[in-house]
Amino acid sequence: MNTAQKLLVDVHTHVYLPRYAQLLRSRTTAPRILTRLSGPDNKPEERLVILDNEPSGGRPVGAQYWDRDEKLAFMDKHGIDISIVSSANPWLDFLPASTARSLANELNDDLESYCSTSPIIAETRRKRLYGFGLLPLVPEITTESLLDTVQQIAALPHLKGIIMGTRGVGKGLDDEALDPVWAAIEKAGLVVFLHPHYGVDSKQWGEKDNGHVLPLALGFPFETTIATTRLILSGVFDRFPALRMLLAHSGGALPQLSSRLASCIDHDPVVASRLKHDARYYLGRLYYDAVAYGSAELRFVSDVIARSDSYSSTAASADSHVAPKLGSAQMMWGTDHPFFPPLSNTEKWKSVVENLDAITGVKEWTQEEKDGVRGGNALSLFNL
Ligand code: URA
Ligand code: ZN
After folding, report:
1. Which of 91, 220, 249 to mutate to test the pocket of ligand 1 (most atoms within 8 A of CB)?
2. Which residues have a beta carbon within 5 Å of ligand 2, which is an ion?
3. How far is CA 234 from CA 188, 213, 230, 242, 337, in A?
4. Residues 384, 118: Cα–Cα separation, whole Å
5. Which of 35, 114, 196, 359 has minimal CB crowding within 10 Å?
6. How many C-beta atoms surround the C-beta of residue 252 within 10 A?
7. Under CATH, what is the fold of the domain 9-13+80-382?
8. Where are the domains of the chain?
């Protein structure tokens, strides 16, 4: 592996661009940024509230959420060479179609200049910042607007993909209305970063105050699990075999549930013959961030990816000598910055160090595989 392949690349790192933060400040219902007086000296504090009835009255926010210098300082502190920055949830989901469209275009241009004016890594000629653009995925948007925005993003040289929530244009991502969008994204070679926002029904969380733990630790990954499963069931990955999709939080619970999913499909007359391949094959078609916080989980995900080709409907016979694919090659490190800041003053963020240590701790991965997950795989996937 050459020096460039040893770069540390963060594929899961967010920003609320100043234009978007301003919009949130102007709102009186979630999602919004409100100011309240806090602490013994009644200092004004901005808080981000992105869900109705959000636990703990939202969370404190500051410059880390929008200021590019803060992003670069965070990267320097943790030795991160390159970040592929995405707008944070809930994106444009709550806006009427006409506003969503114009704001998507403005935010894509904003993110392009955020990245294009970032420092260059001298020996590699790469920039330090690249980005995922946004589509105006809201009900009543026209397909033409969505396709125009895909073209806008494809033409912006520092935007390498599109971050997407799970709602689509109102009916989820398994909606055939999105087929022209998948086709355009596939053709443009952009990577879809699938990221949760809504979690699952908050009635599941009971009445105890557990802060943000249940929605973040469970609700978020379950939302991704359901959305990805619906995509598989809808045949999107059969219709768009070159579509590249990166799943947040290592694909949530899907790797653990994929054999059960395959079995349920095989036993259900409605879907048994719908898909070209066994469900487990499609897990090997996807990319996974390594934001799982533990070595055992990372190893497990890479094993699930590695075995996937044997579930292809055209799989060679069991006694063939075809080497299994390297699961780790489809995994890439991320931080989820600026979320999960340390609760007490520490030099480095625990959430960052933990995800790096998790990679180091996978005993079954070679040093080369670990370097790949730390950055080399992202350089390849995003063609940096
Ligand atoms: N991470 C995110 O990306 N969004 C949140 O709202 C919380 C954590
Ligand atoms: Zn995130």
Report:
1. 220
2. 336
3. 22, 31, 6, 16, 32
4. 15
5. 35
6. 26
7. TIM Barrel (3.20.20)
8. 9-13+80-382, 18-65
ipTM summary value: 0.96
Give the amino acid at 125.
R
Q: Which atom number of ligand 1 is nearest to the Cα of residue 195? A: 3
Predicted TM-score (pTM) of this structure: 0.96
Which residue has tokens 């890594």? Answer: 121
Mutate to test the pocket of ligand 1, among 12, 89, 197 (most ligand atoms within 8 A of CB): 89
Distance 105 CA to ligand 1 centre (A): 23
197 CA to centre of ligand 1 in angstroms? 7
CA 352 vs CA 4, 115, 247, 347: distances in Å: 21, 22, 18, 11
The DSSP symbol for 27 reads -
pLDDT digits (tens, 9 = 90+) for 217-265: 999 999 999 999 999 999 999 999 999 999 999 999 999 999 999 999 9
Q: Which residues line ligand 1 (CB under 6 A)?
A: 14, 50, 88-89, 216, 336, 339
**Chain segment 44-65, per-residue pLDDT in tens:** 999 999 988 787 788 999 999 9
Closest CA to 332 of 278, 286, 274: 286
